[in-house]
From TrEMBL:
<keyword id="KW-0808">Transferase</keyword>
<comment type="similarity">
    <text>Belongs to the NadD family.</text>
</comment>
<dbReference type="Pfam" id="PF01467">
    <property type="entry name" value="CTP_transf_like"/>
</dbReference>
<keyword id="KW-0547">Nucleotide-binding</keyword>
<dbReference type="GO" id="GO:0005524">
    <property type="term" value="F:ATP binding"/>
</dbReference>
<dbReference type="InterPro" id="IPR005248">
    <property type="entry name" value="NadD/NMNAT"/>
</dbReference>
<dbReference type="InterPro" id="IPR014729">
    <property type="entry name" value="Rossmann-like_a/b/a_fold"/>
</dbReference>
<feature type="domain" description="Cytidyltransferase-like">
    <location>
        <begin position="5"/>
        <end position="169"/>
    </location>
</feature>
<comment type="function">
    <text>Catalyzes the reversible adenylation of nicotinate mononucleotide (NaMN) to nicotinic acid adenine dinucleotide (NaAD).</text>
</comment>
<comment type="pathway">
    <text>Cofactor biosynthesis; NAD(+) biosynthesis; deamido-NAD(+) from nicotinate D-ribonucleotide: step 1/1.</text>
</comment>
<keyword id="KW-0662">Pyridine nucleotide biosynthesis</keyword>
<dbReference type="GO" id="GO:0009435">
    <property type="term" value="P:NAD+ biosynthetic process"/>
</dbReference>
<keyword id="KW-0548">Nucleotidyltransferase</keyword>
<protein>
    <recommendedName>
        <fullName>Probable nicotinate-nucleotide adenylyltransferase</fullName>
        <ecNumber>2.7.7.18</ecNumber>
    </recommendedName>
</protein>
<dbReference type="GO" id="GO:0004515">
    <property type="term" value="F:nicotinate-nucleotide adenylyltransferase activity"/>
</dbReference>
<keyword id="KW-0520">NAD</keyword>
<keyword id="KW-0067">ATP-binding</keyword>
Length: 196
C-alpha cells in the first residue's frame, strides 16, 4: 500500500481537490489517497456555513466513485485543533503495511508558511511533501517555492481558478457554482441549504 494524504477544511470539497489528488496518484504511483477533513484548522477561525458532519458527508459523496480515494475521519473524531503531525503518526500506526513514507499533499500557497506548522521540523520524518499548483499568480508561486528550504516533490496538476471560499461566496451571492463541485456535493449543499 502506497498512501498519500490530502487534508483540508473541505468547506466545501471541490473539483480542484479531486484533480490534485488524481494528479499525485498518477505521477507518483500512490494507490490510496486519504482525504482528511480538519475538525479545526490552526490557521482558520472556524468553518462557516456548515458543520463538521456536513463537511465529512460531502467528502464521502465526492470520492464515492473512486476506489483509490477514501475519507479518513480521524481529525473530526479527535476534535480540537487538527495538527498534521498527529494525523501522520496516527496513519502510520493504523497502516503499518504502508510502503515508505506517507505522501503529504499540499498546495504551493502553503509552502512559504510551512515552517509555522506545529512540529514542522518532524513532518519530513513521517512524510514526503508533495506540492501541487494552487496559486493562480505564477510569480507568487515561484517566490513561495524559492523561499522555502523544505525538500519537496512537485506535481504539475492542472491549475483551476476554484476555491472553497469562492464557492461559498458564489452561493451567497446567487452566482453560478454548480459545476465547481461533484454533482452529489451540489445536491447535498442544495438539500441542506448550506452557505446561504
Amino acid at each position: 500500500m502506497k498512501l498519500a494524504v490530502l487534508g483540508g477544511s473541505y468547506n466545501p470539497i471541490h473539483i480542484g481537490h479531486l484533480m490534485l489528488a488524481d494528479a499525485v496518484s498518477l505521477r507518483y504511483g500512490y494507490d490510496t489517497i486519504a482525504f482528511v477533513p480538519a475538525f479545526l484548522s490552526p490557521f482558520k477561525d472556524g468553518h462557516s456555513g456548515c458543520t463538521a458532519t456536513d463537511r465529512l458527508a460531502m467528502v464521502k459523496l465526492a470520492i464515492a466513485d473512486n476506489p483509490a480515494f477514501y475519507c479518513e475521519p480521524c481529525e473530526i473524531e479527535r476534535q480540537g485543533v487538527s495538527y498534521t503531525i498527529d494525523t501522520l503518526k496516527f496513519l502510520k500506526e493504523k497502516y503499518p503495511q504502508c510502503e515508505g513514507k506517507i505522501g503529504l499533499i499540499i498546495g504551493d500557497d502553503l509552502l512559504a508558511g510551512f515552517n509555522n506548522w506545529h512540529e514542522a521540523e518532524h513532518i519530513p520524518d513521517y512524510a514526503d511533501i508533495i506540492v501541487g499548483n494552487r496559486m493562480i499568480d505564477r510569480y507568487s508561486a515561484e517566490q513561495s517555492q524559492t523561499a522555502s528550504p523544505l525538500f519537496h516533490l512537485r506535481v504539475d496538476n492542472a491549475l483551476l481558478p476554484v476555491s472553497s471560499s469562492g464557492i461559498r461566496a458564489a452561493i451567497k451571492e446567487k452566482k453560478s457554482w454548480r459545476y465547481l463541485v461533484p454533482s452529489a456535493v451540489y445536491s447535498y449543499i442544495k438539500e441542506h441549504k448550506l452557505y446561504e
